[in-house]
Amino acid sequence: MADPVEIAPDIAILLAQTWKNNGGESIHREAVCRIWAFDMGWFDMETSIRVRDNLLNSGWIEENPQGVQPGIEISKIDIPFGWLPTMRLLENPPPLPKGTTSTPTAKSIEKPARREISENSAPIDPASNHITNLLDQIASSSGLNRKEVMRRAQRKRRALGPVTLWMALLLVAREQQLPMRGLLQTISS
After folding, report:
1. What's the rounded Cα separation, in Å, for the pair 154 and 152?
2. What is the pLDDT of residues 60-93, one digit of tens each?
3. Cβ–Cβ contacts within 10 Å for residue 126, how many?
4. What are the pLDDT digits (tens) for 156-188?
5. CA atoms within 13 A on the CB side of 83
6. Suppose 104 and one of 5, 131, 158, 167 were both cysteines; which one would form an S-S bond, judging by CB atoms 3.0 to 4.6 Å apart?
7. Which helix or strand (DSSP H or E) is residue 61 part of?
C-alpha cells in the first residue's frame, strides 16, 4: 500500500506544520482554520474552512469529540524551509487510503516536492526570481559582503517564522538604512 506522504506530500507537510506544536493532539475544528488564516497567513478564512472540509471528507483530517487531528502520523515529517501550501491539491485532495500510517523519510518528502517545482515554469512567488539581484544590490550598497547579507537575512527568517527570503533581504536593507525604492523596483520587475 502506498505511503500517504508519497500520495500527497504537500498535504502531509501542511498537517505536520499545523500540528507541529500540538504533538498531533486534537485541535478545535474552527481553531485549525484560524491557524491557517491568521497564524500562518496561508488562506483567507473562507478558503481555510473549505480546505478543512476537503481534508475531512478525504480522510486526511479525522474528527473526534475533542476536535480534529491528522489522519496520518506526522512526527517524522520534515517541513522544508519556507514551504507554502498549494491550492491545486487542497481543492480536491486524493482520498487517504484506510489503514495507512506515515513513516516518511526526508527523501520521500523532498523528492516529489522538487519534481513538482521543476515541472512548474514560474515560481509561486514572482519576487523569488529576483533574489540574486536583490542580494547583489544590498551587498554593494551596504558595503557588506554577500555572505554576511545572506546570513543576516536567514537569521531574520529564523526569528520571524514564515517569511520569504526576499522579504528578509529587504529587512536587512532597511536595517542598513538603504533606500528602498530601487530594491522594491528590483523585485517587482
Report:
1. 5
2. 999 998 899 998 888 888 888 878 888 888 888 8
3. 12
4. 888 888 888 888 899 999 999 999 998 888 888
5. 21
6. 5
7. strand 61-64
